[in-house]
Write a structure and sequence with these properties.
single chain, mainly beta, 4-stranded antiparallel sheet, 28 strands, 63% strand, globular
Length: 345
């Protein structure tokens, strides 16, 4: 695999990065956990525009509609200074952008948007109800659901769905076993939220893993037709685990050691299922894991280094048949990196 690395922006404490699919194609946005710029880039890493100049505390950016509107967490600052955190909505206004806060939600850390019939719903997760300092985990977080109002000026009304999740950190939005689902992680384990097919049906959830997990993603990594759960074990933990159903129960079949893992993504990379992992400790690497076969009942994985010493906080991926583009917020070097992955044949 040929890897082309490039710095595409300098930014203090870049944190959130997401891929968007708009009228002009697929692009990415990155923002900081300080009061800094939000930047939009083409798939190839060229700067397109600046949605805002000096807002921040951005933990998440997620697309709202096909017109380019998006939602973002703001005022969740470094070291959990997040009592004033909330959700903002950004829409195009002439040649620029207008942002408006639509929900006050202290310590909101992760959000995603899912469509139910014709309406977008926000799933919002707080990492805690309150914190006196960074080490205070005495109060759990919650998961909230709310329908985004069509009127840009109206607030977002949120209702609690899951209460009492300590260190409520990770959110995966996609599908599990062919069914639309959202996975939430915390000290209590991994919770699956099923996305209802119609607005008349209730949002439901169940716990599917009963141990502390920081982040989770889903992929059929071994190609047998059944999904695996890829987890960061423990809060900002030191192990990447592949969980496979064995006799109807999730079992860890592979472990990969890391240090302070934070970025996690899975999908198709150049024709094969892959997992990308970024960790902030040790050599601060971004690595790719792919299926390496089975031996005596043990799963084998091939590990390739994409980069080192960047300390990824989060990554976004734009897949392609011949070229895959990865955007990485470098927590170690205060910059946004762009990686172009392609076959070297």
């Amino acid at each position: 695999m040929k890897i082309t690395r490039s710095q595409i922006a300098a930014m203090d404490s870049p944190y959130a990065v997401s891929a968007f699919n708009g009228a002009q194609g697929i692009y990415a946005m990155a923002a900081s956990e300080l009061n800094e710029k939000c930047l939009a880039f083409s798939a190839n890493g060229e700067l397109l525009e600046t949605p805002w100049e000096d807002q921040g505390g951005t933990m998440n950016l997620c697309q709202l509609d096909g017109e380019g509107s998006f939602l973002a967490v703001q005022e969740f600052y470094k070291n959990f200074h997040s009592q004033t955190a909330g959700i903002v909505r950004a829409i195009r206004a002439g040649d620029g952008w207008e942002t408006r806060r639509i929900a006050d939600l202290p310590f909101v850390h992760r959000i995603c948007v899912r469509q139910v019939e014709d309406d977008p719903y926000v799933i919002a997760c707080t990492i805690s109800d309150d914190k006196q300092n960074a080490a205070d985990w005495s109060k759990p977080g919650q998961v909230y659901i709310g329908k985004v109002p069509k009127d840009f000026s109206q607030p977002l009304e949120l209702s609690p769905l899951i209460e009492g999740i300590y260190k409520n950190h990770g959110l995966f939005s996609g599908a599990l076993d062919g069914k639309e689902a959202i996975l939430i992680t915390g000290q209590e384990g991994v919770f699956r939220i099923d996305v209802p097919e119609t607005e008349s049906r209730a949002w439901t959830f169940e716990k599917i893993l009963d141990r502390e997990v920081s982040d989770v993603t889903v992929i059929d990594i071994d190609g047998d037709g059944f999904d695996e759960l890829i987890t960061i074990e423990g809060f900002h933990g030191d192990t990447i685990a592949v969980n496979k159903r064995v006799d109807g129960q999730w079992r860890i079949v592979y472990r990969y050691p890391v240090k302070l893992a934070h970025a996690l993504w899975s999908g198709n990379v150049l024709g094969e299922p892959a997992v990308l992992v970024g960790y902030r400790g040790a050599n601060g690497a971004l690595v790719m894991l792919t299926f390496g076969g089975w031996r005596d009942g043990d799963l084998l994985m091939d590990v390739s280094a994409i980069d080192e010493h960047e300390g990824p906080t989060n990554i976004a991926v734009i897949p392609g048949d011949k070229v895959v583009r990865v955007f990485c917020c470098s927590g170690s070097k205060n910059r946004v990196m762009h990686y172009r992955l392609e076959d070297d044949a």
